[in-house]
Write a structure and sequence with these properties.
By secondary structure, the chain is α/β, with parallel strands linked by helices. It is about 30% helix and about 15% strand. Bound molecules: flavin-adenine dinucleotide.
């Protein structure tokens, strides 16, 4: 491979684009950063600063030992992340979370990138890559990618549509489901393509439980859409509350229908309603609630869904929601270097940020860090493998490239421990002291975090 002295072009100066630019120039490779704000606004940003936080000012938990996003923070800090460095510098008190003064944070990112001798900032809307002679590009235009560029991506990817609208159902950690109440079985014991006739987890409800659940669903606070998020509902992905509003029995004839299933814990009693959960990742550590897309506010979701027998102690890897989004079908379209397969090897067009199907500020910046390092390695004539799947960074790449189930629908997700290969919960601590049963789940997270930090260091030493 030849060493290129050409700059790497980055389209979009958000969380991902800013981090990618920083990682590239740290390796001595020049960058041209194209950002349309200043010329053309989006519906959510208010400034023309780089890395503007469009909503909350929180980067969520900063606890690397017991929280997956805290672990991702730590891995990124060790990788010299600009986003984390500016967040640390502009931190505001927020308990165990890393929250920032949003203006100070974005101003700091903007100042550093704008004044860097290897970075040229161009304020423009990039509408296509077809007429550009660039051979090393990162597209990091986010959930609000401008329409003309979306159209270009549609054209080159050959996909029928970019997913502009999320209707997402909650995802639950398998090991928090009470299998003494739930059971595995497919409806009518129908075998799937892999020959598995017990692909779903089923949670039964009696009549009283169902009625109480419907009451809670109807009474729960719902998120309101902003005007620009106005989207029509399609009957195939109606929020469950909207279905419940159409009639108290609607859910029993829809996603909660109790037919073709027998509860082995209570075989002679027919359930009044049944909630099904479907395996969500290849590791089998996460399950999604089938047909349970919802616009219940996040705080209310845990309370309402824990009314379901078997889910009383459910831990949610992702809560449900409905919002406008733009993301590509990364598992089909990208390789593990985050390159668009359709254009490679003529051009290296990488994608980064929320557009790849990760969710959240930190995750978007993390994919920017990876795309930046991959692109820089290419420009320098070297190669860099993806980080190991045991790290939070590697788990994110896995999620967007190979980690989902064949044929399943690919949906954006925050980082969580369910995306990392599991470990058995430890029975004793490092001093040989027995760990009480109820603390073993926490101890397992710490072990997974320690493993991740060890493995990420080995990977960081490569670049
Ligand atoms: C309304 C809303 C609220 C959100 N709230 C949160 C939250 O509270 N917490 C959280 O963790 N995540 C939140 N997210 C999700 C997500 O984490 C953020 O959107 C995050 O900013 C994504 O980072 P990004 O770099 O992929 O995209 P962005 O940060 O949006 O950056 C993309 C950049 O590309 C630019 N751009 C777009 N098209 C073009 C073009 N054609 N040419 C040149 N430039 C272009 C945009 O102006 C923008 O600066 C929210 C998303 C939305 C839409």
């Amino acid at each position: 491979m030849t060493v290129s002295s050409e700059p790497i072009h980055i389209v979009g100066g958000g969380l991902a684009g800013s981090e990618a630019a920083w990682q590239i120039v740290q390796r001595g490779v020049p960058v041209v950063l194209h950002e349309m704000r200043g010329i053309k606004p989006t519906n959510a940003h208010h400034t023309s600063d780089f890395a503007e936080l469009v909503c909350s000012n929180s980067f969520r938990s900063d606890d690397w030992q017991f929280n997956a996003v805290g672990l991702l923070h730590e891995e990124m800090r060790r990788g010299g992340s600009l986003i984390l460095a500016c967040a640390d510098k502009h931190q505001v008190p927020a308990g165990g979370a890393l929250a920032v003064d949003r203006d100070g944070f974005s101003a700091a990112v903007t100042e550093i990138l704008s004044n860097h001798p290897l970075i040229t900032v161009v304020r423009e809307e990039v509408t296509t890559l077809a007429d550009k002679p660039w051979d090393n590009v990162i597209v990091a235009t986010g959930p609000l990618t401008s329409e003309s560029l979306s159209q270009f991506v549609l054209d080159v990817s050959g996909e029928g549509q970019l997913s502009f609208f999320d209707a997402i159902a909650p995802i639950i950690h398998y090991d928090s489901i009470d299998m003494s109440k739930a059971w595995k079985q497919s409806r009518y014991d129908k075998e799937g393509p892999g020959g598995d006739a017990a692909a779903y987890i089923n949670c039964p409800m009696d009549k009283d439980q169902y009625e109480a659940f419907i009451d809670a669903l109807l009474a729960g606070p719902k998120a309101e859409f902003k005007d620009w998020e106005h989207v029509p509902y399609f009957d195939g992905c109606l929020p469950i509350e909207v279905m419940a509003e159409r009639g108290r029995e609607t859910l029993r004839y829809g996603p909660m229908k109790p037919v073709g299933l027998t509860n082995p814990h209570n075989p002679t009693v027919k359930a009044h309603a049944i909630i099904q959960l479907r395996q969500d990742n290849a590791l089998g550590t996460l399950y999604n609630m089938v047909g349970f897309q919802t616009k219940l506010k996040h705080g209310a979701q845990a309370d309402v869904f824990r009314m379901i027998p078997g889910l009383e102690n459910a831990q949610f890897a992702r809560l449900g929601g409905l919002h406008r989004n733009t993301f590509i079908q990364s598992p089909k379209l990208l390789d593990r270097q985050l390159r668009l397969k359709a254009l490679f090897p003529d051009k290296s067009v990488r994608f980064a940020g929320q557009l790849t199907g990760v969710e959240g500020y930190v995750e978007s910046a993390a994919i920017g860090l990876l795309a930046g390092r991959f692109a820089a390695a290419q420009a320098l004539g070297t190669s860099l493998p993806a980080p190991p799947e045991s790290t939070a960074l590697g788990a994110l790449i896995n999620h967007i490239t190979i980690g989902h189930l064949e044929g399943g629908s690919f949906q954006p997700m925050n980082i969580n421990y369910g995306l990392l290969p599991p470990l058995d919960p430890p029975k004793v601590d490092e001093h040989g002291k027995k760990i009480p049963l109820k603390e073993r789940g926490r101890a397992k997270k710490r072990l997974m975090s320690l493993r991740a930090l060890n493995d990420v260091q080995e990977w960081l030493n490569l670049a």
